[in-house]
From TrEMBL, chain A:
Name used for this protein in its record: DUF1468 domain-containing protein
Keywords: Membrane, Transmembrane, Transmembrane helix
Organism: Pseudooceanicola pacificus
Residue intervals passing through the bilayer: 6-28, 40-59, 79-108, 120-141
A Pfam family this chain is assigned to: TctB
Domain DUF1468: residue ranges: 8-142
Signal sequence, renumbered to the chain: none
From TrEMBL, chain B:
Name of protein: Tripartite-type tricarboxylate transporter, receptor component TctC
Pfam families for this protein: TctC (PF03401)
Native organism: Pseudooceanicola pacificus
Gene3D superfamilies: Bordetella uptake gene, domain 1, Periplasmic binding protein-like II
Residues spanning the signal sequence: 1-25
UniProt keywords, alphabetically: Signal
Family that this chain belongs to: Belongs to the UPF0065 (bug) family.
InterPro entries on file: BUG, Bug_dom1
Domain of life of the native organism: Bacteria
UniProtKB/TrEMBL annotation, chain C:
Keyword tags: Membrane, Transmembrane, Transmembrane helix
Source superkingdom: Bacteria
UniProt KW Transmembrane helix keyword: yes
Name of this chain's protein: Tricarboxylate transporter family protein
Residue spans crossing the bilayer: 12-30, 109-129, 135-155, 162-181, 318-341, 361-379, 391-408, 414-429, 436-455, 467-488
Domain DUF112 span(s) in chain numbering: 17-440
Length: 146, 313, 507
């Protein structure tokens, strides 16, 4: 964790400097005279983050504890990539086909991705969930959500 | 079986398409209508929109579904409406300020009245300057006299129009004012009732608190039906009145007979007992304009507001 | 008094009781589903209120508000995915309890704390609405600014393992809260040209991404271990693991009372909301505890503190509504719309013009508390079984509901992008041990703090000497300074001579 903390400290310090020098001046205009500048609060926050991340870096110098677990396990990164990919695919289908395709892909895709292999479950679960939502919003409550 | 049905459906679709817009428009509406509201649920405009949707639905014989699309004072919803098919099945119920004021106040909004069609206006906002009930002034001139004796007084500003009003008055009369920013109508009411500010610019909700708050100057061209004795800002000698009304906005190119159908259906709201009850309880006056009058009002106020809001610089 | 009797008659014989029950049930279910919650429930209930009589309509809305507050504890405890941001502190101790096989105990404590907080706060509303609202008016922007600064001193205690990282997370929370149109200068900040960001990043999609979706990804990565653990987990033979023991009641009673008090006060103050209430209560309980280091590992007090305050906020946020006609929360704003729909003007005149209606409402609110207790108690045994379902069957459904909940906030796909953006941040902060609780507190409090600071500058006419007219503000400013000094001294003392502290505590 120490090494991860030190790296995080450096990354956050860079983020803070970038925000202070580039993003805040680019994305926030200076306000009118006689009022607190709209840039003030974001600048203070990024300034604090800069200070704290340097502090984080300094306090975590030195070798890692031996045998300490890595912050990111392979399995978790795989899960992030998997679910991220399913979301990406679902959103593409949302624009190409529609919200129904989005929901079905999201549910069926993550079922398969997480290791469900029974065809009945893979077909039934998206259908049942979509039907449930439709019944709840359109029939029971009578409001269109799309 | 399926194939045959598909063929029939396609053929029917073709016939419909060939028979042209007129025939389709005559049947309008044949399916549910979606009504966008550019604010979150529960506000003044949302309330009127839902009451109007109910009347429209009764008149047109199809459900009218209200969908809240809040963001940037309605500009997000109006942007989305632009991309919708001009067939009358998607409409936006909004304050006309999104088109006749927002472009002059927000850099990234550039709507013009010509970008949309208007099917009618139904209610007006009783915008104006409000003060605590026991304040020692009842009209704008009296307030100005008081303000000269009390430099550094505070007023609540909910929008940049509010700041514009006070800047214009202060500049002409040599007043010294502190603008207290507030985020919502209820917060504005709170500052008045608690006597934290001397005046506030209200969108009309202060009429719900007749025991605590009074109107000192409507910022509309007409006197408020809820306070007919109070002279307007124009009567006090400031040429700054800007009217805002709720309007049904449609995508550019919507067929005229569809617009007329909606316009006629909206007129029924004027006399609909439920609609009257709701607007009465909320102190919102009904002022119906048909499609033609609404379009004219939109163009006129756009020109006038442009002069007021950008005239100085 | 005769109004009260007729009110009981009206509510219990008419359709109102049914709608209150339906509201509580709907709210409880929506609250228990990660991703959906109060906002969803209220949005869908508005059209329904058109067709109901006033008491039924308002009962339905109040039922939803109360039910979802209690329901959100369920998903927080069982899945570590708070149904609403205000239940985030519930998950801190509730989820560890559930993984230790004490799911039913945690669920029961969550429910009882919710019901007690809600019931007592409703009583406060009924008895004290009018006088309290007048006092609440004394809390102007200057006082609010001082109170918010005071409440920020609790952040240190909630930052988890590392104070530095907790503070960094809080700074990021505040930073993201500045996105959108600044209220005083009307300058858009950090919107990158997106009009959708003009009103800021909305709390609901942000919290769903950060709390629910990110957690689901982490659990997806560890699903084999978690499923294996669940399969081994048995209801222990000891019934004490399923119910709340007398000793636990004694430990939690003062916690619940404190939570109720904090929640009620936060509810009355304008625009703070349930999240602030539950975070403050959790922080205060942790600070008052003799074993603060055990919080986060399955302390039943943590659940009691968060849930009692979370639910106490709801009724007391109606105080300004009933007494002055000013809505104190989103639900209250929607209630106003419902009042007006039925031709009623909310506010002090209601008591004079419609005393019967007000009494009906009070009775409806009290019965909502009781219905919540019955439904929740009946449901918890059933809910507790969810923990045994393999994760591969849970995660897809949760992801779908998260998308629906985010989408409904603005009816646009943009909310889903916001949700996914904060999913990534939530994932990184979980793995690198940055507290998302302090992030959320920063995000929730900062906009109010900045605005009230700007308001204060104007109200004080840019002269700090004018602060003498605001004694309440001075008290809170001083309290903030004293707390910071005390914490600093305690920490300094701890690192040098830990024994001294123990002696101090004993004496």
């Amino acid at each position: 964790m120490k090494r991860a903390n030190a790296i995080t400290g450096v990354v956050l310090a860079i983020v803070a400097i970038l925000s202070l020098v580039v993003i805040i001046p680019w994305q926030i205009e200076t306000g009118p005279q006689g009022m607190m500048s709209p840039r003030l609060v974001p600048q203070i926050m990024m300034g604090c983050i800069l200070l704290l991340s340097v502090l984080l870096f300094v306090t975590n110098l030195g070798p890692d504890e031996t045998g300490a677990p890595q912050p990111f396990s392979q399995a978790e990164l795989r899960a992030l990539a998997l679910i991220g990919g399913i979301f990406a695919l679902s959103i593409v289908l949302y624009y190409l086909i529609g919200p129904l395709a989005f929901g079905v892909t999201l549910v069926a895709g993550s079922l398969i991705g997480l290791g469900e292999r029974r065809p009945l479950v893979i077909v039934a679960m998206p259908l049942v969930l979509m039907l449930m939502l439709w019944a709840l919003f359109y029939k029971v409550l009578g409001t269109a959500i799309l | 079986m399926t194939t045959r049905r598909t063929v029939i459906a396609t053929a029917a679709g073709l016939v419909l398409a060939l028979s042209g817009f007129a025939a389709v428009a005559q049947d309008y509406p044949t399916r549910p209508i979606t009504m966008f509201v550019g604010y979150g649920a529960g506000g003044q405009t949302d309330l009127i929109a839902r009451a109007s949707a109910k009347v429209l639905s009764e008149q047109l014989g199809q459900p009218v579904n209200v969908v809240n699309k809040p963001g940037a004072g309605g500009a997000v919803a109006a942007n989305e409406l632009k991309s919708k098919a001009p067939d009358g099945y998607t409409m936006l119920f909004q304050s006309n300020a999104v088109i006749n004021a927002a472009p002059f106040l927000m850099d990234r909004v550039d709507f013009k009245p010509d970008d949309f069609e208007y099917a009618g206006m139904i209610t007006a906002y009783q915008t104006g300057m409000a003060a605590p009930k026991d304040a020692p002034y009842d009209t704008l001139p009296e307030f100005i006299a008081w303000a000269k004796q009390n430099p550094g007084f505070a007023y609540a500003a909910l929008s940049s129009e509010a700041r514009m009003y006070m800047d214009a008055i202060a500049e002409r009369e040599g007043l010294e004012a502190n603008a207290v920013p507030v985020q919502s109508g209820s917060e504005m009411v709170n500052t008045l009732i608690a006597h934290q500010v001397a005046v506030a610019f209200s969108g009309g909700i202060h009429y719900r608190y007749p025991d605590e708050i009074k109107t000192i100057a409507p910022t509309t061209t007409f006197r408020h039906p809820s306070a007919p004795d109070v002279p307007t800002i124009e009567e006090a000698g400031f040429d700054l009145a800007m009217d805002t009304r709720t309007v049904i906005i449609l995508p550019k190119g919507t067929p005229k007979d569809v617009i007329d159908k909606i316009s006629t259906a909206l007129k029924a709201a004027e006399t609909d007992p439920d609609f009257v009850k709701v607007t009465k309880a909320a102190d919102i006056p009904i002022m119906y304009y048909d499609a033609a009058a609404a379009t004219k009002e939109m163009n006129d106020t756009y020109t006038k507001n442009k002069a007021i809001l950008t005239g100085g610089n | 008094m005769e109004h009260v009797l007729t009110a009981f008659q009206n509510v219990f014989t008419g359709p109102a009781l049914f709608w209150v029950g339906a509201g509580v049930l709907l709210g409880y279910i929506l609250g228990a589903i990660p991703g959906l919650g109060k906002a969803t429930g209220a949005a869908v209930a508005i059209p329904l209120t058109y067709y109901l009589d006033p008491v039924s309509a308002l009962g339905l809305l109040i039922g939803i508000a109360k039910g979802s507050g209690a329901g959100s504890a369920v998903s927080a405890i069982l899945l570590n995915t708070p149904g609403e941001p205000s239940s985030a502190p519930t998950a801190l101790d509730g989820y560890p309890l559930a993984r230790q096989g004490n799911a039913q105990k945690a669920l029961k404590m969550g429910l009882f704390a919710s019901v007690i907080g809600d019931f007592l706060s409703t009583i406060v509303l009924i008895v004290l609405a009018a006088p309290l609202a007048r006092y609440a008016l004394l809390i102007g922007p200057v006082e609010l600014c001082a109170i918010l600064i005071f409440s920020l001193t609790f952040i240190g205690g909630l930052s988890g393992g590392s104070m530095i990282k907790g503070l960094i997370a809080a700074c990021f929370g505040i930073f993201f809260a500045t996105v959108g149109m600044e209220t005083e200068t009307f300058v858009p900040r950090l919107t990158f040209g997106f009009l959708q960001l003009d009103d800021g990043i909305s709390l609901v999609p942000m919290a769903i991404g950060m709390l629910a979706v990110a957690e689901m990804i982490v659990q997806a990565g560890n699903r084999r271990e978690i499923d294996a653990q669940s399969a081994e987990m048995k209801d222990s033979d000891n019934p004490d693991d399923r119910r709340i023991t007398g000793a636990e009641w004694r430990r939690c009673a003062p916690v619940i009372l404190r939570g109720t008090f904090i929640g009620s006060v936060v509810g009355i103050l304008p625009g703070l909301g349930a999240s602030v209430g539950s975070f403050l209560s959790y922080g205060a309980t942790k600070r008052a505890s003799k074993t603060p280091e055990k919080f986060g590992t399955g302390m039943i007090e943590g659940v009691a503190a968060a849930e009692s305050a979370d639910n106490a906020v709801v009724p007391s946020s109606f105080v300004p509504l009933f007494a002055l006609g000013i809505p104190g929360s989103v639900i209250a704003a929607i209630l106003i719309a419902a009042f007006i729909l039925h031709g009623l003007t909310p506010g002090p005149r209601m008591f004079v013009e419609q005393p019967g209606l007000v009494a009906d409402l009070y009775v409806a609110m009290l019965s909502a508390s009781l219905i919540m207790l019955i439904l929740g108690y009946a449901g918890q045994r059933f809910f507790a079984m969810i923990i045994r379902v393999p994760l591969r069957l849970i995660i897809p459904g949760v992801l779908l509901f998260c998308c629906v909940g985010s989408y409904m906030e603005t009816s646009s796909a943009f909310s889903i992008y916001v949700m996914l953006f904060f999913t990534l941040i939530g994932f990184l902060s979980r793995k690198l041990d940055f507290s998302f609780v302090t992030f959320l507190i920063g995000f929730v409090i900062a906009p109010k703090l900045e605005l009230s600071f700007r308001q204060s500058l104007q109200l004080l006419d840019h002269d700090w000497a004018n602060l003498v007219h605001h004694p309440i503000a001075i008290v809170f400013f001083l309290a903030a300074v004293v707390t910071v000094l005390a914490v600093a001294r305690k920490q300094a003392g701890q690192s040098v001579e830990p024994i001294d502290i123990e002696r101090e505590e004993l004496s």
